[in-house]
Task: structure prediction
Amino acid sequence: MSYPTPLPLFLLLGGLLLAPALFATTTEPFAERSPPLAARAGVPPEKPSGHAQLTAFLQDLRTLQADFQQLIYAPGYGPTANSASGTFYLQRPRRFRWDYQAPNPQQIIADGISVWHYDPELEQVRVQFQAIALRGTPTRLLMSEEPLEELFTLEEQGERDGLAWILLTPKEEEPKFREIELGFADNLLQAIRMIDPFDQTIWFLFDQLEKNPPLDRQLFRFQPPPGYDVFEF
Result:
């Protein structure tokens, strides 16, 4: 059976299409991950709502670092998912970095002006103006200080898989995602679930999350290596 070319970060970043080789294949559906995810979160039986935890999480957020696993489920292909993993860094406002480490190293860096996608295997760099790339994405939510209600319609989703969930529906026309769900425990982001216009379900699961760690600003600077092809979008 063949699988469709995964498009999560093409949609997440508004045009930066990652090479198919970035993703490995896993047959582990998210439902099987729920017990360890809930246990890792350590959520008490009674806890604040998803909206309350989202507000608390963003209130004093300056920097963020976490390991992540990305899973993509395409309609018509059963429970099998494409998977990638790495480390995520964020520095508010306007800077982030996704270091994909498996199955193939790649980097996506927002320096406050542009978003860079660095693919050492292909010796290519793709770049797009940041304000365009991040419209209607959860990354914009995390890195921006704009009021949430101006960007999304918010709706409580209760508790599921041991986490408190909130649904975000982008307000702008033709959003990159139809809906975005955020799962919280102890006022920390544990999971993101997104559905794109192609009905793909995309998960980001976070581990070893640190809020407001000291981060070197050099993490968010990028200069294309000599000899690499640079494509502007």
Notes: The chain has a mean pLDDT of 81. The chain is about 20% helix and 40% strand.
